[in-house]
Amino acid sequence: MRIDSVDIGRRASAAVIIYEALKKAIVDGQLADGAPLRQDEIARMFNTSRIPVREALTMLEQQGLVETQRFKGAVVAGISPAEASEIWEFRALLEGHVIERAVPNMDAEVIETARGYLIAFDKATQPSEWGDLNRRFHTHLYRASGLSYHLDVIEKTLDRVDRHLRAQLSLSNGVRRATEEHEAILDACAKCDAARAGALTRQHILGARSNLLDHLPGG
User: Fold this and answer.
1) pLDDT digit string (tens) for 15-33?
2) 94 CB burial (10 A radius; 0-12, 13-18, 19+)
3) How far apart (Å, rounded) are the C-alpha atoms in residues 66 and 160?
């Protein structure tokens, strides 16, 4: 099992440390869909008992990152075509609304920082870089909305699907297409055209959904 473990011994925050390590491994795609998460093995890796491991797995299950299967125990949660379609549709609605609210609050610094992420994204060569920079680009723009609850929901939703987003970017012309669409979104933001930024964001996300569904088993 590939996760970044540490020796936590008797530290009171053991469950949180295990939770964060497992979450990162799942979101980054180091642990594949359906990968078993054996409590004994994880406890040995972190030099602790099974109690904080169970607590960590419960937290991950509440976020939809882990599921418990009969006879198998805890495994990394997969995603079906129907779930992917619903999640991407939800993202399009929510993120389109948030960026519309954000645009009137954007200043030159917000635009230039986003442009830096866009340039780095275009130069990146690894899926892990694409996924991270794609997320930074979008969430940076969304923060100008000041809608903290909406942003928290977006972050949790992205945690649920981030590894699939990385896979989608790696498919066919995903990166080139994303770069062009990011440029159009940023241009609309720079011109203070909130309606266009919202429409382009929704189109961008739904286009990614179609690309992903074409490659998901059963899609």
Assistant:
1) 999 999 998 888 777 888 8
2) buried
3) 10
Contact by Cβ (8 Å): 201, 92: yes
- Local structure of residue 166 (DSSP, 8 states): H
Name the residue among 94, 93, 77, 80 with its Cα closest to residue 155: 94
pTM: 0.75
Sequence-distant (≥ 6) Cβ neighbours of residue 163 within 8 angstroms: 26, 27, 28, 29, 131
**Mind spelling out the 3-state secondary structure of 179-195?**
HHHHHHHHHHHHCCCHH
Which CA distances in Å does 156 have to 100, 119, 160, 183? 20, 26, 6, 25
CB atoms within 10 A of CB 147: 17
* Spatial distance between the Cα atoms of 93 and 160, rounded to a whole number of angstroms: 17
Domains of the chain are 14-76 (1.10.10.10), 81-215 (1.20.120.530)
Residue 30 DSSP one-character state: S
pLDDT (tens digit per residue) in 157-213: 998 888 777 776 766 567 888 899 999 999 999 999 999 999 999 999 999 888 888
d(CA 189, CA 107) in angstroms, rounded, equals 10
The answer to whether residues 27 and 134 touch, using CB atoms and an 8 Å cutoff, is: no
